Amino acid sequence: MKINPYLTFDGTCEQAMRFYAEALRGELGMLMRFRDSPGCEELPPDLIMHARLNVGDEVLMASDNHPAFPYEGIKGCSISLNVDSPEEAQRVFDVLAGGGKVEMPLAETFWARSFGMLKDQFGVAWMINCAKPGF
């Protein structure tokens, strides 16, 4: 079994997933638009029905919100990235924080060589963690 985060955006899915592909050095494996699905031809042509980002053997999926439903933003969760070195933590943190808001700067903690939290320019919360041995 795998657990994969699935994000919903308000018209910025494609932009966000391309940004994450670059930031996480992943590959955008799928970008399906609503307009290409039967019965959805009347929707705005840019909306994404399903996107899949492959990062190693991990997957991040997303879509744009269907206009028939109110969009309430992304709330109550964070995506946690566990990286191998403080240098990689810094690189990813800096890229994801661009245009966003740092909530906790990267710093050493009792469990991590480097840990920080941010909300990116698309409103997605991230926790970047480079764990100490044994954690």
What layout of secondary structure does this protein have?
Layout: E1 6-9, H1 13-23, E2 27-33, E3 48-55, E4 58-64, E5 79-82, H2 86-97, E6 101-107, E7 112-119, E8 125-131
Parallel strand pairs: 1-4, 5-8
Antiparallel strand pairs: 2-3, 3-4, 6-7, 7-8
Would you give an account of this structure?
This protein has 135 residues and is of the alpha/beta class. The chain contains 2 helices and 8 strands. The longest helix has 12 residues, at 86-97. The mean pLDDT is 95.
Notable features of this structure?
135 residues, alpha/beta, four-stranded mixed beta sheet, 2 helices, 17% helix, PhnB-like, Glyas_Bleomycin-R_OHBP_Dase
Short description:
With 135 residues, the protein is of the alpha/beta class.
| Average predicted local confidence, pLDDT | 95
**How far do the termini sit from each other?**
23 Å
Number of helices, counting only DSSP H or I runs of 4 residues or more: 2
Portion of residues in helices? 10-25%
- Give the C-alpha Rg: 16 Å
Q: Give the overall shape, derived from the CA principal axes.
A: elongated
> What sequence of helices (H) and strands (E) makes up the elements?
EHEEEEHEEE
